[in-house]
Q: What sequence folds into this?
């Protein structure tokens, strides 16, 4: 699956633009603030029905315009697919595939697999565990249709249990039977989520390590661990053991809502001891592994968006990265850079064909 043609009307700093892409590598080159990332975001929009950068849809309409339109023409084997997204101020977003409206936007997610790699990914390393849980949940829900509904059911039960604990505390009462109802729900859905996450990590880790080794040319060893309280015992027992504490905090202290991933480099925490380039390499390997896993499961090669990739990577790692994504295992790639020469030079050295666009003030020129 690749994006052949993109047309944009009034999206961020683009008034009107029509672009034809290479099915392999495309570069958006230009100075700061000219609109390189905005083009990636338009492509992201057509896969995920929303912006990666600005969660408020309406703020993606060009200032002073009343609507935006994005239309992508994709080639999927012999078939062409047209994805349309239109938004008017104060109206509901329109999202169509081959001229047909979706009943639920969620039905579109996964149809055009896409992975985006941006400087914002650093949040995966420095932020709290919820960001890392979202990362794994986002991948698993792209291939496991039931996962998201299990997660919703779990969160609902968790909410009810916490409210109940709070009401016990406020009213100085306790009723084991009513708590048991929510315990059962937590265990039922929590065990399913735990198993899905464990299986995912088992599959994902070797792919991730392979990419880290390839980009760093085997310079460092990395580890990725799935931390869950459920690793240490049955969920039911954990809930029993935690009851006194739960009553005191009026909060559920154990469960898969506490899961985390630990990122290590040579046995030490990446967050504290990794250099910026090592952290960047780690993030790239995570995202490339994500792309490979999605391709393996959905049988469609993901589109890969690489934003400001030169930031923090040395020339050797950059060349390795382009060598990897330029190879046969990856589909269509979009890369941004502020330098007009260095990525085209590296791609030429690797004998990779590409199309370059010069981006200036919301216009994209071929060449
Ligand atoms: N809704 C909007 N309407 C008009 N312009 C917008 C809108 N949203 C963002 N912009 C403009 O888009 C420009 C930024 O574009 P973008 O982030 O794509 O730049 P870039 O080329 O990636 O720059 P950098 O190299 O700094 O990352 C800014 O000038 C910003 O004001
Ligand atoms: Mg940018």
A:
């Amino acid at each position: 699956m690749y994006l052949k043609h993109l047309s944009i009307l009034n999206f961020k700093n683009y008034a009107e633009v029509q672009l034809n892409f290479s099915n392999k590598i495309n570069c958006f080159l230009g100075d700061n603030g000219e609109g390189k990332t905005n083009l990636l975001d338009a492509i992201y929009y057509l896969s995920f029905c929303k912006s990666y950068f600005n969660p408020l849809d309406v703020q993606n309409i060009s200032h002073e315009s009343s609507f935006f339109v994005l239309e992508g023409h994709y080639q999927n084997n012999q078939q062409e697919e047209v994805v349309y997204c239109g938004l008017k101020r104060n109206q509901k977003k329109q999202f169509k595939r081959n001229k047909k409206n979706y009943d639920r936007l969620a039905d579109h997610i996964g149809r055009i697999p896409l992975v985006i790699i941006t400087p914002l990914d650093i949040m995966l390393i420095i932020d709290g565990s919820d960001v890392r849980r979202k990362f794994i949940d986002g991948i698993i829900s792209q291939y496991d249709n039931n996962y998201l509904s299990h997660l919703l059911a779990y969160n609902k039960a968790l909410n009810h249990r916490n409210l109940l604990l709070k009401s016990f505390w406020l009213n100085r009462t306790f009723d084991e039977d009513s708590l048991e109802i929510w315990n059962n729900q937590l265990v039922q859905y929590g065990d399913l989520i735990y198993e899905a996450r464990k299986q995912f990590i088992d599959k994902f880790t070797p792919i991730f390590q392979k990419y880290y080794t390839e980009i760093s040319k085997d310079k460092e060893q990395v580890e990725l661990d799935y931390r869950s309280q459920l690793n240490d015992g049955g969920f039911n027992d954990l809930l029993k053991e935690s009851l006194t504490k739960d009553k005191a905090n009026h909060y559920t202290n154990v469960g898969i809502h506490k899961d985390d991933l630990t990122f290590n480099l040579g046995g030490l925490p990446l967050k504290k001891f990794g250099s910026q380039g090592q952290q960047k390499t780690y993030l790239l390997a995570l995202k490339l592994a994500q792309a490979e896993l999605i391709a393996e499961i959905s049988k469609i090669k993901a589109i890969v968006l690489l934003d400001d990739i030169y930031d923090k990577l040395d020339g050797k790692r950059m060349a390795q990265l382009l060598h990897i994504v330029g190879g046969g295992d990856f589909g269509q790639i979009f890369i941004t850079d502020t330098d007009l020469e260095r990525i085209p030079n590296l791609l030429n050295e690797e004998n990779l064909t590409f199309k370059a666009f010069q981006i200036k003030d919301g216009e994209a020129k071929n060449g």
Summary: The chain has two domains: 1-113+303-367, 125-299. The chain has eleven helices and 15 strands.
